[in-house]
Amino acid sequence: GAGVSQSPSNKVTEKGKDVELRCDPISGHTALYWYRQSLGQGLEFLIYFQGNSAPDKSGLPSDRFSAERTGGSVSTLTIQRTQQEDSAVYLCASSPTQAAGDQFFGPGTRLTVL
Amino acid sequence: DQQVKQNSPSLSVQEGRISILNCDYTNSMFDYFLWYKKYPAEGPTFLISISSIKDKNEDGRFTVFLNKSAKHLSLHIVPSQPGDSAVYFCAASVTNAGKSTFGDGTTLTVKP
Fold it and tell me: Which residues in chain A (65-84) have CB-CB distances under 8 A to chain B?
C-alpha cells in the first residue's frame, strides 16, 4: 500500500512481558516518528528518526522503551517488562521532510497490558 | 506542564453552522501550528497549518486563525458537515524540529 502501515493492529500482553511494534513508513520518507496516545489524551511524542542523524529520544518515558530503524526504512519500537500504564495506542508517522505538517500517520497499534 | 491545551473536550454543532475549535499554547518558541483530524481506528490526518508569520490561513471550508500575543489559535469550519464529525487535534512545533506537541483533542459532532 501507499500509506504507513503498522503491525500488529492489536496486541494484548501480560505485565512483565516484552513487546515489539513494527512500523513500515512510506517509501522514500526520511523521517520517522513514534507517538503514543493514552485514553482520552493527546499524542505524546516518543522518538524521532531523521535520515542518518542520531535519533531524538527525548520523549521515551523510561529505559524500558527503545526503538531502532533498520536501513532507513522499517522501525521497531520495543517495550521491555511491560507495565499496565504502557497500555495505549502507539502511532507511527513518516515524513519526506523535517516539516511537521508533512507527517503521515499509520493506523496505530493498540497495546493492552493486563 | 501541558504546552498545548484544548480546553473543550467536545463540541456539537448543527449541519451548515460554523464549528470553532480552540487551542492555547504556552511555549513561545513554537512557530508552526497544525490541525489534525482523526477518525476512530485510524491515524490522524493533516488538515491545515499556519506559520507564526501569518495570522490566518484558509483552505476551502477550513480557516485557522493565530493570535500570537494571546498564544491562541482556532480552527473554523464553515459550513459544518456531518462528515466533519471526528476528533480534532491541535499541534505545535518549532520549524524543522520534526516532532510536534499535541493537545488532548476536541471531539466534534455535526448533527444533520
Answer: none
